[in-house]
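Case study 2.
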Amino acid sequence: MLENQKYIKERISGGEGLHLDFKHSISDAKKIARSLVAFANTEGGSLLIGVRDNGSIAGVRSEEEYYMIETAAIMYCKPVVEFRHKNWNINGMTILEIIVGRSENKPHYAPDTNDSYRAFIRKKDQNLVAPKVLVEVWKRQKKEFKGIKLKYDDVVEALFNEITLNGFITKSHLTRLTGIRSYQADKLLSSLMLMDILDLDMTEHYTRYIFNETYKREF
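Prediction:
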């Protein structure tokens, strides 16, 4: 029991991050759905219910916390997000851990603050809306295809030159630079990501595309 307490306390002391999110309590199933979806769409992770943002332990109030999460996963995650749960007891208080694995069935969607269903991903300790290019990558990964044919034309050359010069390119700059339409930019950028030429570089403030590290080393 003491070893279990030490383990969960060490995880909490490490703070929130890519694989861990704290929730003092559950009052909004739609908000929880965004966390479940973000973990499923990224690398998986755990929600610790009954832990405040600063890491102090509040404990869960009742079994209603679990049922609200179950409601979030079934009613507000499309498709449904599977999860496991575990109870931790620390100083007489219960922490509910919700464990979400990396999904093979992404993209998963959840309602945003305007009740529009969006795909979310986990970046550090935040849940962010996934860009259309990444959603396109997921959708294409689920399809069986023999390979990707990419014509090295003026558009591709301009994209490569821009990243070589500045280190990155945004979708909006790509469309302005080359004159291609938004859906064409989505297709091109997703193709280059599937080919491991480009990676996504994203924060809450920007979404941009950079060369994959392996591609940079080889070329």
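The mean pLDDT is 93.
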